[in-house]
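Note to self: the last two entries modelled the partners one at a time, which told us nothing about the interface. This time every component goes in together.
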Amino acid sequence: MLPLSPTDYDAILLSLQVAAAATLLSLPLGIAAAYLITFVKFRGKVMLEVLVNLPLTLPPVVVGYFLLLLLGKQGWLGSLLNDAGIRIIFTLKAAVIASAVVGFPLLVRSIRVGMEGIDPQLINASRTLGAGRQDTLLTVILPLSVPGLVAGSSLMFARSLGEFGATVIVAGNIPGVTQTIPLAIYEYAASPTSEKMALSLCLVSVLISAGVLFLHESMAKKMARRR
Amino acid sequence: MRLTMQVEKRFGPFTLKAGFAVNEERLGIFGISGSGKSTLVGMLAGLQEPDRGEIILDGECLFSSVQKINLRPEQRRIAMVFQQHTLFPHLSVKNNLLYGFNRCPPKQRTIRMETLVATLGLEGLLHRGVTNLSGGEKQRVALGRAILANPRLLLMDEPLSALDDSLRFQIIPYLRSVSEHFGIPYIFISHSVVEMRLMTDRVLVFEKGKVMEQSTSEQLARHRMGCSQAGYINLLQLHHMTRRNGMCSYRWAGGELLLSASNSGTESGLFELSSKDIILFKKHPEAISARNLLECSVIGLFESGSKLGVELQCGGGVLVAEIVPEAATELGIGVGSVVHAACKASAFRRLASADQKT
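The predicted structure of the combined assembly is written out below.
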C-alpha cells in the first residue's frame, strides 16, 4: 500500500476534479473551434488557429502570468468580477481555468482530426436530403466525431492532471484548496525528508495518466480504422 | 422538369460556362471526367456556388447572381445519388432511408417507406448496419434514401462507376424506377454511352466546361460510333435460352441467335453486340464459320467519322452494323437493299440477366 496522507488524498481528488471540470467546460468551445477551422471559410482563420494553438508552445508560466493579469483584482476581467463579488485568483476556479487554457489546443487538435476524417460527401448528402447546417452538425458531424471527442477529452484530461506552471501562478499552492498532485509533489520535493511521500504521489500520477492514455490510444485506433 | 441553367464558374485556368434550357423527365449529362459535369450538378444542388448566372427549375429561381438569390441545398428539394454510396456509417439501413423522409414536409411525402422497400428489394436489410452491405446493396440503399426524401428532382452523379461491370447493369432497372415507379424526374451523369442509352432520352454533351451538343441518347451513340474503339453497341434483349450442340440458343425479336456455351447460366437478359462484330454479305454465303446469319433489309444509313453506319431491320429487331464507305459502294448498299448479316457466337456479351439478384 502506498503511504498517502490525508492532504495527498485531497490533492488527488482536487486534481481529478480540476481536470474533469476543465475538460467538460472546454468541450463545447473545443467543438466550436474545431468546427470553424474544419468546415467554415472565413477571414482571419489563420489567426484563430494560431490563437488556439498558442498555449501549446508558450511556457505554461507565461500563460499563467497572462491569466493573472487578466483575472487579478486589478485585471480587466478580474476587476469586473470582483465588483460582482466573484473572486477567481487563488481559488479552485483559477486552477480549472488555467488547466482549461493550457489543455485547449490538444482538445481542438483531436476533434479536428476526427472532423477532417469525415467524408465531405456525407455532409453534402445530408444537405441535399434536407438537413440544414445545424441539423447536419448534430446528426452527422458530431456522431462521426465521437472518437475524436473522446480522444481529445482524454488527452486534455491527462494534460490537466499534470498542469503546474500556470496553476501555481493563478491558483497558488494551498493544501486542500488548490493543491493538485503536481503542486503537492513540488512541495514534498522541496523538503529533504519527504522523498517517500513524493514518490508515492508520483506513482499515483503515473497510474492515472497511463489509464487515461490507454483510453486515448484505443480511440485513436478506432478513428484510424474508420478512415 | 423544366430546367434553365446559365452559369459561370472559374477554377484557376478552367472556366465552366454552361447555358441550356431543357424540358425532360430523364435527362443525361455526358462527358469525360474533368469536363465539369460534377461541378454543374453541384451548382444545381446548391453545393457549389456559381460566380454568376441563373438557375431556374420548374419556374422557381434557385440561384440568381443579379437578384442575389441563392437557395440553400436543403431548400431546393433536389436529392442526389453520388459515385460512392455516402451512407451514414453510424445509422442503420432503416435510419439511413428515413433521413431525408423525416426532413421532408409531411404534405410532400407522397412516397412511403413500404412501397420503396418493396420496389428496391430492401426487405431483408432494414435492421442491418450499412458497413457490411455489398456494393450493390449500398448503392440501392443510397438510391432509396434519395427517393424517400420525396425530391422534385434527383441527380445521379455517376452512380454506377464505383460498381463492377456485372453489378452495374443489374442496378440500372432500380435507377430507372425513379421515374417509372415514383414519377421523379432525374438527371443522370455518366461517361458511358451505353448507360446513357439505358437511362435517358435526351443528352447534353459536356466538354471542357461547355455544353457542346444536345441530342437524343441514340443519336449520341451513333455519332460516337466512328471514333469509338468499341463501335456502336447494339443492345439486345434475349430470352428463352435452350442448349443446342454445345451452344446456347436464344430468342430475339429479330430471330434465333446462337451464343457461346459460357452464357448457359442465363435464362434471359440484356446482351451487347458491337457494330464492329457484324459482317455484311450481299448474297447468302453458302458456308460460313460464324454461327449467326440473318437476312435483313437496310432501313437507314448514317455517317460517323470515317465509318458508315448501316441500320438493319431483321424481322422485328433492329441492328446497326458499321462498314467503310468503300464497302458500301462495292456491295451496292442503299436504303431498301437486302443483305445478310453474320456475327460470331462469341461476339455477344452479357450485360445483365433478369434472373440474377445483386
